[in-house]
Amino acid sequence: MYSPKLFSHLAIISANVILGINVPFTKALLESWLSPFGYILSRSVSAAVIFGIIGIVFVHEKIKPKDLAIIALGGLMGFIISQYLTALSLQYTTPIRFALIVALSPIIVMLEAAVFIHEKIKLYKVIGVCFSILGAAVLVLNAHQDTGNINEVYGIILALISISAYGLYVIIMRDISQKYRPLTQMKWLFLFTTVMALPLNQGSFFSQPIFTGAPWYVYAEFSFLIVFATILSYLLIPYGMHRISATNASVYMNFQPVVAAIVSIIMGQDVFTWDKPLAAVLVITGAMIVSLGGKIKIGNKKPCLNLKAQI
What we know:
Layout (H helix, E strand, L loop, with lengths): L3 H29 L3 H23 L6 H25 L5 H8 L2 H12 L4 E2 H19 L10 H21 L1 H6 L2 H16 L11 H4 L3 H26 L4 H6 L3 H12 L8 H18 L11 E2 L1 H4 L1
Antiparallel strand pairs: 1-2
């Protein structure tokens, strides 16, 4: 039986699994084949062309001028700033350590949501977030990686700013996601991000190594980046956000460290240890508490923490 809310949760989960896979892929691409600028411009232009064609043929939804401005702001925060800083961060830190910072997203989104849209923070969500972050912490703190000369502090700061910008994107686009179809939103979002990114082109975009010749697996990683991590994930997120809160959506970001760790092991960037399955259990448990906790009554009331009153 079709359940719109269930499919909304599955959409957000799927998007975060894709983004988790994309973390080590992006790291590999940035090491030798793409610059941070090339990373965001190639994603933005490809998505703008594909969503533009689909929008012209299949989508004829009118959108208010003020909502176009909101989408433009969302594109600036959630793609230009967030993804550019992600690319920079991954040049200074490892995929799994970057994923640890992503695990802090629910807390950052809860704080931002409390400040900007006065969203209350319920106790069960706090408990769920703690489980998920504990899982991510177990995963990362027990990872055995040779960091070499990587400037971890700089990479972590960039990652924190990146996820803060993405958290604002989730909040900014919440109402837009309820008013318009995902294809409509993405058509305009990537049009705006392309317009923002193109002036930054220094004429060296097509001289990057990936466009002058690369092994087949590099093009496979690049294709995944464009088709799945850009087009599909950015469709799934607004679809899911149509029926679930910004905080719920952000909690599912904790799937990314687990997925990133698994892919890193497969790619030879890490080794299997006992902490990986334990982290997966904790992360999934946290997500389930956040998703289902509102249906569980404690006494006659549901405890609620109004974070806005405490800030």
